[in-house]
Amino acid sequence: MxxxxxxxxxxxxxxxxxDEAGGELLRFKHRGPGGVSVLSEExxxxxxxxxxxxxRRVNRSTRMYLGSYATWxxxxxxxxxxxxxx
Length: 86
What we know:
The chain is an alpha+beta fold. The chain is built from 2 helices and 3 strands, in the order ββααβ.
């Protein structure tokens, strides 16, 4: 397994180990109307995929954290689930 999609978790979380899996899951998620994906601009490939599908950038936000900064991998996040869970 190289990725997964949790449609009922917030905006529908997608995490994947590579661009192929992330792209397929993004296409699956956005087949229907009203799909929203939130991902880091550091995931340039994911942003490009969404723009090629006709999605547009709407808002910008910074990543918030409490305590010491936790290592994370924005390149593997193709859609965050919620603001409190990455």
